[in-house]
Amino acid sequence: MKVHFLEDSWPDSHGVAEHQDVPSVLDVLLQLRPQYDSAALQAQITKQMAQGYQVVYVKSGEQVMGVAGFVVSEKLAWGKAIYVDDLVTAEQHRSKGVGECLIDWLKAYAKAQGCQQLHLDSGVQRFAAHKFYLREGFHIASHHFSMTEIK
């Protein structure tokens, strides 16, 4: 398993995918974000990349096995940190060390970027993911509150 940056294979200025991995990366991300279709997801990722969002993926042979999307930022609460927006292992590759590979890579990248912390949120219904995050050394540090419809 090897981790790759999506930026190295993202579409060119004309929107043409230059690398064969882009559709597979999108397919894996769609398992976590099914509210998008492939084109809408690609457009949203492109927009977020302009704001510092980065995507990495794990590949073994020709198969994309897992994907993580994250930002490096500074906050009063955390200092310089990585916030993981998206982390998903393709369903057929779960429990094979892919998630651990991504977390290990994110920790090493965080250190290399001078970050002191790594953060993520996980939906309350994702019990298997919570078990994984706790096993990987994450702590439940807060409750996340949201207003999904501002009136």
Question: In words, what does this structure look like?
Answer:
With 151 residues, the chain is α+β, with helices and mostly antiparallel strands. It contains 4 helices and 5 strands. The chain has helices spanning 21-32, 38-49, 98-112, 127-135; strands at residues 2-5, 54-60, 63-75, 79-89, 117-120. The protein has a 5-stranded mixed beta sheet, sandwiched between helices. The chain is globular and about 40 Å long. The protein starts with a strand and ends in a 16-residue tail after the last helix.
What features would you highlight for this structure?
151 residues, alpha+beta, five-stranded mixed sheet, 4 helices, 5 strands, 32% helix, globular
SSE topology string: EHHEEEHEH
User: How many helix segments?
Assistant: 4
Report on the biggest sheet: 5 strands, mixed
Beta-strand level of the residues, as a percent range? Answer: 25-35%
Q: TL;DR?
A:
By secondary structure, the protein is of the alpha+beta class. It contains four helices and five strands; from the N terminus they run E-H-H-E-E-E-H-E-H.
Provide the fold topology.
Layout: E1 2-5, H1 21-32, H2 38-49, E2 54-60, E3 63-75, E4 79-89, H3 98-112, E5 117-120, H4 127-135
